[in-house]
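thoughts on my protein:
***
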Amino acid sequence: MKRLQGFIGGLLNKKVDATGLAIFRIFYSVILLCEVGQIFYFKELIFDKIPFIESADIDLSYALIVWMFSLVLIVFGLFTRTATVLNYAFSIVFIATIKSYEYHMFYIYMGVNFLLMFVRVERCLSLDNLRLFLKKPEANEDKSGSAFDYYIIAFVGIGLVYLDSVFYKWDSYYWLKGLGLWLPASFTNLTIFDTSWLLNAKWLVLGLGYLTLMFETVFIFLLHKPKLRVPLLIIGMGLHLGIIIEFPIPWFGLGVSALYLLLVPQKWWRILGGFLGLSKQKLTVHSIPQKPIENLVGVVSFCGNVRVLPDVTLGKGDLVITDLSGIEYKGRSALYKLIRCNPLCYLIFLIFKFIAPSLTEQWVSSILTDSISYGIHSSRGLDLKRYLDALNVRLTSSIFLLVVLLQINVTLKSDLINRASENIGLGSNIFGSSVAGFSNRVANISKKFFGITRHTVFLDPHFEGYNHTTAVEAVLPNGEKEWLPFISENGHVGNYNYSFIWAKWTFRVMAPSVNMNNYEKGIRDVTTFWAGKNGYRYSEITYNLYYKGLNVPVKWEKDFLRSQYEVPWTKFGEAKWEENQFVLEAKDIESLTY
């Protein structure tokens, strides 16, 4: 425990530039906003008992709008603490309670959204800092962040996910044969378009499969090593950008990529700022007479465009600055010149000046004339600070350990652990009957509130027996025919079929072994939703159901994906509404020959 406290304490006490946290906050919140926007668009399909026919008991539209508004606030860093609490509360209400439409990114959201309530992601590039300064100029708000803030988000959002995942992948035939990437990318109904140019490069695609397996295995153990973060960043970003291109789960690929931004070296952001011209030095500050001016310099120069001389805080005169031409400015003119260095700060200043010019002038005067005494800390005050810092380290270390134990409680039930338990004669479950129930209850709580759960993605059970795919064609009242945007005529996924909709359609409506009752309900919901969204009367449309057979390979095959294009669609049934009843007349999919 002492070693853990030493490790956590070192990260907590290490102050770093908060720019990376701010950029992560912006990108992550925009991606989650897109996910919530998709939930809003498909809300009738997800929540209605029958889309557009039998509504949900509660209209959830307004709650989803408030959730999206809270995410907008997080993007801009305005009322960030309140917005992150609202975000987490709505995550519990919606994400944690969705069952039929859940998918693996939801669990990552839960863990990260919980952490956002505590991590100071608003220290930089946020309106909260400007708002605080305008309200209280003497506030000495620290613009740096803790290295622990970077580490804990990546640890929970990426590290624990990979850690659990590999305990299934190391027991998977397909992953151990290097087929972990090739196989799912070789099914038309799992992918967006034809990438045979990559899939046919046998050793490259098999190598990427092995690389993924090894990378996920070692990631959590290398995350704390600064010198290895760039290789981890490059490999991780590459793999998840590939997911964005290949599979219809864009928010997963983009969301994890946003987490990888936390591994970007701080100097890279400064270099990028310089490339964009944001960090080009514009002014040199020679004298700061009091604390409020020092705060203002911190606000307007977050991109590094203001250089402050080392002894500037010792100055006793007016604010004195010079521009690139060597022209010197003092007092009020210097203050205005300083504010104009930051376009966002200057814009807000102009808005305040337009709305309340007299108050703005008073604020300017207070900045130039008010002074703050620095004071001297008593030894008792220092002792109290040391005690609180030590208490923070112990508390944070205990919570960190608890999170790890919660993940271990879930991972101990993985396929690899169960198989190893059987091999040494302990049975298929290492938990005895007396503790199994308690362990399951703990696992359910950790899943709902913290997203700590199993991560069984693209494993053998997802493909074994998956020798079919189906599609739906609508026959409109005027006789025209239109394929529903779930599976297209070439067999790839359609425009509706991505993220949690894709997980529902591909692995629950269909699945390797199709349950016709589930299939009928799934077809009823997606067809009725599509009709309602496109303004059709559900009772006036007939749906033709088509299938095509697939062969599930056990080894790499050249042009396996393209071979599926040659298999013709065969009609095996129809569906329609008759007298307010949905009627599906079709053969049992599992009885069809391929």
